[in-house]
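Input (structure):
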């Protein structure tokens, strides 16, 4: 089994041709937890809308604003354990087929969220069928694949009490197949002050980034309704990826600015020509912070000379920017 490292490797020294201009937000309503990929001449976009999994496509980032959504999966009362709270869909290629990872749970009090997988075809525009529930213990959300040294892992947000508090943390397990992981290991807990703002301390929304032979996981810290919701980074420094000692935490690297608040839950993607790395993320224009009226946005990121990511600052609403290099409409 191979998880494609989509949108994460940049061709150094290549000459980029700017894409069509665009502005944020790409989605001003149901814009939480965005995932964007480029495939066969189109951008494909999905995000949390709470009710189903929908995908839209366009040849330019700006075109995603007016693209009509296609519902690729909807919950059914026949399966009550995955009927409500449809969160954080992510598009990934596994063994040549497109899959969507997402979280869902029951509708009643006391129900738990679990990580789910849809399986599609050779294109993100193909139909998707429900493939199964990942066997992560108990509550798990925001699941995402990670590959290190040819081994596949599943990273997700979990609840752990290793520090004496029951904290929403990051966990990791080794995959034997796409739905099966081994023993759960604690990867990171919200122990830093910037991760503990709002109603509760939180680590969530992990996503892998590979650059210059280095591996990183971005993640979101603090409660999503707080304006200080921000992005941190975990850097893999060698050893067993299941052990906390193999990772170094830093942050925050991306926080409220330019009239945007509650900035977080990102994904990474490459420009069509492979010369640039971009980031999709959500934010809110509400200075009090919000996990409801969330915008989907995109911006190009940079790297230090040693390959460490520079995420920069949120882009102001309406600011016109050059789109990803290699867009066909450029």
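Output (sequence):
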């Amino acid at each position: 089994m191979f998880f494609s490292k989509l949108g994460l490797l940049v061709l150094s020294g290549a000459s980029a041709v700017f894409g069509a201009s665009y502005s944020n937000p790409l989605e001003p309503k149901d814009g939480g937890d965005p995932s964007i990929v480029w495939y066969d001449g189109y951008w494909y976009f999905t995000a949390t809308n709470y009710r189903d999994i929908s995908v839209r496509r366009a040849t330019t980032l700006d075109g995603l604003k007016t693209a009509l959504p296609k519902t690729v999966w909807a919950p059914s009362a026949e399966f009550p354990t995955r009927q409500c709270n449809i969160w954080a869909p992510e598009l990934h290629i596994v063994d040549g087929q497109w899959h969507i990872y997402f979280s869902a749970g029951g509708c009643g009090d006391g129900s738990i969220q679990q990580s789910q997988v849809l399986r599609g075809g050779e294109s993100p525009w193909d139909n998707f069928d429900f493939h199964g529930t990942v066997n992560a213990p108990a509550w798990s959300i925001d699941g995402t694949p990670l590959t290190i040294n040819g081994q596949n892992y599943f990273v997700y947000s979990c609840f752990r009490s290793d520090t004496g508090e029951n904290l929403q943390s990051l966990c990791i397990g080794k995959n034997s197949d796409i739905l099966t992981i081994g023993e759960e290991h604690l990867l990171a807990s919200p122990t830093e002050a910037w991760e503990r703002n709002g109603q509760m301390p939180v680590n969530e929304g992990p996503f892998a980034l590979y650059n210059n032979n280095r591996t990183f996981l971005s993640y979101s810290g603090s409660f999503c309704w707080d304006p200080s919701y921000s992005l941190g980074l975990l850097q893999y420094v060698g050893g067993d990826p299941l052990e906390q000692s193999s990772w170094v935490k830093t942050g925050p690297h991306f926080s409220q600015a330019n009239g945007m608040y509650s900035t977080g839950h990102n994904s990474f993607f490459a420009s069509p020509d492979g010369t640039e790395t971009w980031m999709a993320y959500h934010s809110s224009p509400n200075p009090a912070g919000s996990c409801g009226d969330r915008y989907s946005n995109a911006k190009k990121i940079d790297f230090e000379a040693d390959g460490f990511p520079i995420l920069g600052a949120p882009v102001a609403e309406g600011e016109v920017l050059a789109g990803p290099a290699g867009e066909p409409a450029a």
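Notes: The radius of gyration is 18 Å. The chain is about 0% helix and 50% strand.
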